[in-house]
């Protein structure tokens, strides 16, 4: 009797183990199926994801390039506008026909005296320069005077720095003085009329004492 019960119990255990084994296999199959579905889903959407990322990168790059070109164009446009304004201002300074006929061939503009220490390391020497600009008759006297009054601080500053770079030997003799006059004239014309005809004909020396 005991042997029959043992046999029956053993059979039931085997059946149970067999059922559990089948359930385990089914779970494994289900897990594999789920993994397969996930891989299939990822594989299906991966190209779209990659395309979306590429579009975003290209859009960002295009925006950066656009800003770069826009930024590089702005200074050029500003410089062009500034040059146009300066040219228009110089054009407005020209004398009309009646004014040019009534005026002399040239007119004169006095600069304020400039005192500058000479470039002499062993001794303190300075020069006091009083200059007069001989202006072209092509420039209207009244408009030109107002224009030079506005630019006078720039001219005085440049003249002070320039004279401070000279030594005693640089300002002695007629040749050196003529060279200084020519250099001042050319520099002033370049600063005042960079994109038009020079209007300063000469730089005349009223006083140039060295002390």
User: Can you tell me the number of structural domains?
Assistant: 2
Strand count, sense and barrel status of the largest sheet are:
4 strands, antiparallel
The secondary-structure element order is HHEEEHHE
Low-confidence stretches: 68-80
Give the C-level CATH assignment of the largest domain. Answer: Alpha Beta
Strand content: 5-15%
Strand and helix layout:
Blueprint lengths: L1 H91 L4 H6 L3 E5 L3 E4 L8 E11 L4 H24 L9 H19 L7 E8 L4
Antiparallel strand pairs: 1-3, 2-3, 3-4
Description:
It is rod-shaped and about 145 Å long. The chain is an alpha+beta fold and 211 residues long. The protein has two domains: 1-92; 105-207, Tetrahydropterin Synthase, Chain A (2-Layer Sandwich). Strands 1, 2, 3 and 4 form a four-stranded antiparallel beta sheet that branches. The chain has four helices and four strands, in the order H-H-E-E-E-H-H-E. The longest helix is centred in the N-terminal third of the chain and has 91 residues, at 2-92. The protein is 66% helix and 13% strand. Strand 2 and strand 3 (126-136) form a beta hairpin. It has helices spanning 2-92, 97-102, 141-164, 174-192, and strands at residues 106-110, 114-117, 126-136, 200-207.
